[in-house]
Specification:
This protein is an alpha/beta fold and about 475 residues long. It contains 17 helices and 17 strands. The strands form 3 sheets. Strands 5-4-1-6-7-8-11-10-9 form a 9-stranded mixed sheet, sandwiched between helices. Strands 14-13-12-15-16-17 form a 6-stranded parallel sheet, with helices on both faces. Strands 2-3 form a two-stranded antiparallel ribbon. The protein is globular, with a radius of gyration of 23 Å. The structure holds 6-O-phosphono-alpha-D-glucopyranose.
Amino acid sequence: MRNKKTVIISNRLPVRVERRDHELHFIPSEGGLATGLGSIYQQEGNIWVGWPGFVPENEQEEAITRAKLAELNLVPVFLTEEELQGYYEGFSNEVLWPIFHYRLSYAVYNSDNWRTYQEVNRKFAAVVNEQNPSDKDEVWIHDYQLMLLPQLVREQHPEIAIGYFQHIPFPPDEVFRSIPWRDELIKGVLGADLVAFHTYNDSQHFLNACTHLLGLPIQNNCLHVDGRSVYAEVYPMGIDFEKFSELAESAPIQHRAQEIRNYYKDRKFILSIDRLDYSKGIIERLQAFESLLQEYPDLREKVVLYMLVVPSRDTVPQYRLLRDEIDRAVGHINSVYGINEWQPIAYYYNSFPVEELSALYVAADVCLVTSIRDGMNLVCKEYVASKEHTNGVLVLSELAGASKELLEAIQVNPNSIDQIREALRAAIAMPEEEQRERMQDSIEIVKKFNIRHWVKIFFNRLHEIKTLQKQEMAR
Ligand code: G6P
């Protein structure tokens, strides 16, 4: 009998259920979090709680899903269409997402959606409770969809160790103040013992919100909440470095990368990969690429922008609008500048397997990341990890969390079309030796601060804080 179990909780489970031809399919996620936490939740006794990504049609489907997921140590929280609409689309993605990405005008405040967000957070808490956690256990809650959950778990289990990690930015308190329910949200998060972010600025913004809005006493990064200590800290997330570097070196990927290069006739190959999202600066990137073709006509026919946009949240109106806007911008550039032998942009609205992504990373001369705001951004780290043996240049937004680590990338302000254009030009012209040197520095960082390291130091710190708290209580 183990004396401690770990419960991981996130909106989505690391396995997605899909109904195809009247059958349920269980599809494991390739995501960074799933990989990083794989070694934790797969251990006997540990579990991961979350939404399985579909709405069962009947009790039988629910029972099959529950049983199949149980074999993988996964516990589903089933949500109805109405719950998803209010909690996920309405509140998480139409209030929290835009506000936390500094897009105040995109927020849609609706008290019914707020009520549903509360109810669904309570539903998650009930599922956690059904797992009979003891005060010796530890719980790690992920992201903005579950901001109320730390407090809900704390109410039931006063001594349990709770970590909360926010993967998206935390805005300055005056921006956060726009949300009518801001106090409830931070009180919810403060149920945790350790509240963590990817960057120092995000942690400072969170601390400011706690002191300015709730008037909580603070000492360095430690808040005093009803006699408890809550720490806000910074743990920049890494990727599975080995996976990407090994894939990049494998013969099939090398072969596929060469095919891609041949297909594009060895033109300078600029790669961008994102989820469909207005925080990613996709329109600005297209404008900069057009500006490159306008200002430097000699580059026409010599470059290709390969742009992969992964479908996401297409039930949310802002995302549908963005998709149309991208279609128009790509169509405009290709029709104005394209000729028979050359299309400036190869645009895909699709999701590709990791092997194809790896081949694209290997093939790409430049990887272009222009997020207007991004908690971290893992694409740029995946590109770096794929470049141990081929050259390449990373152009990176200074407003993505990763910019704090990847100092050798060409950094740009993503709101400046001129800066992106000039960075692209410099990247295309960069001597091979400089490319190698700069990439080598980035590789070292991405290799060292990989996903396993991130998981390890987070848990170590959570245990340390728990020990500290016990010592304080004993005094
Ligand atoms: C971001 C968020 C995650 C979210 C992911 C995909 O990375 O930080 O919490 O899961 O986007 O978005 P989705 O809405 O499809 O889960």
